[in-house]
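Support reply, case 0932

Customer input (verbatim):
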Amino acid sequence: MAFVDETKFFVKAGDGGNGCVSFRREKFVPKGGPDGGDGGRGGSVIIEATATIHSLIDFRYRSHFKAERGTHGMGRDCYGAKGNDCIIQVPVGSLIKDVETDELLIDLAEDGDTFVAAQGGEGGMGNSHFATGANRTPRYAGKGTEGEERWLKIELKLIADVGLVGLPNAGKSTLLSKLSAANPKIANYPFTTLEPQLGVLHHSFYEPCIIADIPGLVEGAHQGVGLGHKFLRHIERTNILLHVIDCSDDDYQKNYQVIENELFKYKEELSNRQKFVVLNKIDLVDPEMVAEMQKEFADLGIETLSISAEMEQGLEQLKEHILETIYNMKSK
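Our regenerated output:
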């Protein structure tokens, strides 16, 4: 199933029902007064954030959302029924913008957050409201107002505790599959991952955490090179970044700097985010070489963890380190 994280859609609230022109017609009451009821209010279009979905795929098959109109008023002071609201469920982390102005209307960052995207029209008043001493038999009633309508744009920023970043083929997808039950595509060529992948890391003594695998970044990603630029915004909401490096590549230091530069150029704040370097594929390198790499990063004040995702070496230590760090961050 394709991952959709940006789309446009149209919303139309229900129109209000018209008020009713009616007079009492009863035996022995020859001149009954006005008894026209009010029209019902139109339903509104409401956007609701939910943690049960993680993509905007449903918008690919439906782009128009309309609420019910209110019914018209009736005689005997019977009010028209209110139109049902139209509820649109979107993933947590959705940004709602106006298509014409690109103005941010709401950031639905929490589960259960709601936003009234289009307000339903007011119902018209029945003729009983217009009776006066000078006009006891008004033969007119109010009309319902039209419901709001507009085009909106939705952009998704994934909410995840941990974000995996790194050059293509660094082993991020394999690592995600080992840390969680996620089943991303894994192959021995760059850009295997074409869209963000989510997984949940479980542990006996800690609360579960969500891990997002961001498609491989390359130099110039912040300017639109490669695939990563399209998904860089998903990194913004993560608490921890795991920078995965293929330590079997002789240019591992340059590779590290390429990604760090791209993150900084995209958003400077990301350079100060809690971050660990994960030296992957240690099964392909001499232990002395791994120790030397760790020392090089330590001299720069960068914390490293050494693993082999493919051979499942060092994964338990990595899991505990991730979860303990998240626990400490949330406890502050």
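We compared this against your earlier run and they match. Two observations from our side: The chain has two domains: 6-156, 162-331. The radius of gyration is 29 Å. Please reopen the case if you see a mismatch on your end.
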